[in-house]
UniProtKB/TrEMBL annotation, chain A:
Keywords: ATP-binding, Nucleotide-binding, Transport. InterPro entries: AAA+_ATPase, ABC_transporter-like_ATP-bd, ABC_transporter-like_CS, MetN_ABC_transporter-like, P-loop_NTPase. It comes from the Bacteria. This is Amino acid ABC transporter ATP-binding protein. Residues 2-213 form the ABC transporter domain. The lineage of its organism: Bacteria, Bacillati, Bacillota, Bacilli, Lactobacillales.
UniProtKB/TrEMBL annotation, chain B:
Keywords: Amino-acid transport, Cell membrane, Membrane, Transmembrane, Transmembrane helix, Transport. This is Amino acid ABC transporter permease. It comes from Lactiplantibacillus daoliensis. Residues 15-202 form the ABC transmembrane type-1 domain. NCBIfam families: HEQRo_perm_3TM (TIGR01726). PANTHER family: L-CYSTINE TRANSPORT SYSTEM PERMEASE PROTEIN TCYL, MEMBRANE COMPONENT OF AMINO ACID ABC TRANSPORTER.
């Protein structure tokens, strides 16, 4: 379970997030929705440790942690970026195994076996030796998901998972996120697409630009 | 023909000196340039200023002056380099400045998302630079580095000013002694051969990096 209590984040004198609290239960999906400029992405960047909060607490299973400084081997938060940010010079398989071998110190063989399992799970079985530019957007996104899952995160976060894709792929993404939920994955999804967010969510969090005055 | 075979040994030994200066300068200045470029993009302002000053100094004065300064000037304050070492010293410092600027451009063209993506996978700064950034930068900078490399072959002829017997000097000596154009034409042919081989090698390297986009 991920608990966030009273976090505040400002840039200069603009307060983007003001005393916000939220809870995501294990195996559930939290959708964060709101108009652009409301601070959805900033909130996600704080949760994933890309921005440092000014104040507030993060708890995972009751244990406090700081996503900004966390470097321990207990992977906590995985991220699927809006533009996926795959490493273009590495094959799909290398994209997935890089962090497990370098950070978690898994053996090459173990990481590869794990990666192949993830690829099969995400219907990317035959794409392991291809480079990201050879894949479609939907496939790239699934590689990004596999890469995040390979680090065995407690929570997987998505930033606008539908925005870089063909509109008719939206349902595919829905199905994928729900199937990961069926596997027990806890997920946080930031989206401006209300229907999509509602379809997948156990809990919804609406953020508004004005809440943070 | 007889004349050519007579002067060819001295020209080839001159070409040998040219090649030595060429290779050692590359071996010294490419890594140095890379380190300097990391300083140029670092957030430590004084370091940036210092390296910017260095680059300005090296690119802002003639290489010929730098050679003269190192070999004839520095001994006046007690720093004595032998000829060959003086030449390498000046060439490495000079070319490192150009390479630093080229690498800085390459480093800055890597999207911030790549760093963030590496960060959420919890790669360290060193791992990110080695595994993610440098391979991508190399591909970007090959054409510009190639330009400098070709320039270096010809710039190496400046060492005549401190009395080193390189290819150009060998040809010059033969022309002055025998009053004929033939040595100079041969010198030109040898330079062209060197640049042709270098161009070929550069193309091969470029091709090796074309497996991804």
């Amino acid at each position: 379970m991920l608990e966030i209590k009273n976090i505040t984040k400002s840039f200069g004198d603009r307060t983007i997030i003001n005393k916000l609290s939220l809870t995501v239960k294990d195996g559930e999906i939290l959708s964060i929705v709101g108009p652009s400029g409301a601070g959805k992405t900033t909130l996600l960047r704080c949760i994933t440790g890309l921005e440092q909060v000014d104040s507030g607490d993060f708890l995972v299973d009751g244990q406090p942690f700081d996503p900004y400084t966390n470097r321990s081997n207990d992977s906590v938060i995985g991220v699927v970026f809006q533009n996926f940010e795959l490493f273009p010079h590495l094959t799909v398989l290398q994209n997935i195994t890089l962090a497990p071998t370098m950070v978690l110190k898994q053996s090459e063989a173990a990481a590869k076996a794990e990666a192949n399992k993830l690829l099969a799970r995400l219907n990317l079985g035959d794409h392991g030796d291809q480079y990201p530019y050879q894949l479609s957007g939907g496939q790239q996104q699934r590689v990004a998901i596999a890469r995040a899952l390979a680090m065995k995160p407690n929570v997987l976060c998505y930033d606008e998972p539908t925005s870089a894709l063909d509109p008719n792929l939206r349902q595919e993404v829905e199905k994928l996120i729900l199937s990961l939920k069926a596997d027990g994955m806890t997920q946080i999804v930031v989206s401006h697409d209300l229907t999509f967010a509602e379809n997948i969510a156990d809990e919804m969090l609406h953020v508004e630009p004005n809440q943070s005055k | 023909m007889h004349y050519i075979s007579e002067i060819l040994p001295s020209l080839l030994s001159g070409a040998g000196m040219t090649l030595q200066i060429f290779l050692w300068t590359l071996i010294g200045s490419l890594p140095l340039g890379l380190i300097l470029s990391l300083g140029l993009i670092s957030k430590i302002k004084p370091l940036q200023w210092l390296i910017n000053f260095y680059v300005w100094l090296m690119r802002g004065t003639p290489l010929l002056l730098q050679l003269i300064f190192v070999f004839y000037g520095l001994p006046l304050i007690g720093i004595v380099f032998p000829r060959y070492e003086a030449a390498l010293f000046a060439f490495i410092l000079n070319y490192a400045a150009y390479f630093a600027e080229i690498f800085r451009g390459g480093l800055q063209s890597i999207d911030n998302g790549q760093y963030e993506s590496a960060r959420v996978l919890r790669l360290s700064y060193g791992q990110t630079i080695r595994k993610i950034v440098i391979p991508q930068v190399v591909k970007i900078v090959i054409p510009s580095v190639g330009n400098e490399v070709i320039n270096l072959i010809k710039d190496s002829s400046l060492v005549y000013v401190i009395g080193i017997g390189d290819l150009l000097r060998a040809g010059n000596v033969a022309t002055a002694r025998d009053v004929t154009l033939v040595p100079l034409v041969l010198v030109a042919v040898l330079y062209l051969l060197l640049t042709a081989v270098t161009t070929f090698v550069l193309r091969r390297i470029e091709k090796r990096y074309s497996y991804w986009k």
